[in-house]
């Protein structure tokens, strides 16, 4: 999606639909399958799929204790897919533009700046992990459990150093509060169509037809 506002709307309504029940999760999965770039984004960056590890652990615990694990894994799995799509399709600068557009040049700009710094840190970690893997491959060093601790320590110190540099930069530029973000949101008919389908799926997910899927369980 080109318009981040429509993407945010779609992500919110689809997450609500998926979390509401299995029928809503199926509809949200169909939207992810046909209205997003799907596995192309996952191939571009696979590390967000690690978010499925806690989901798998909780699902196993629910299965062992005899709880309703199937509904949990379906609903939360689709929510994670939508969240990964939202993160990977997001471009630098979009979050601060949306916040400034929605909440104004003071509070919105501050919220957007904090969000952009957070997203920037995540992308920084992703790049650093990729460089570490390439360095290990070039030097022929086996990556195992022994290398996790030094790598993690190095990443933490790199993040702290980056945060300090960002704080110094804001201080040098005299930042106190608020700002102006020149928000321009290009959109296409496909964006409007996809977001309209997402809203329709949310409405459809709360209609009585979803009771049919509940009876199947």
Question: If you had to describe this structure to a student in words, what would you say it looks like?
Answer:
The chain is mainly α and 217 residues long. It folds into two domains: 4-92 and 187-216, no CATH class; 94-172, no CATH class. It contains nine helices and no strands. The chain is globular. The model has no long low-confidence stretch (mean pLDDT 82).
Please outline the helices and strands:
Blueprint: H1 4-20, H2 22-35, H3 39-44, H4 52-65, H5 69-89, H6 94-139, H7 145-172, H8 189-205, H9 210-216
In short:
With about 220 residues, the protein is an all-alpha fold. The protein has two domains: about 5-90 and about 185-215, no CATH class; about 95-170, no CATH class.
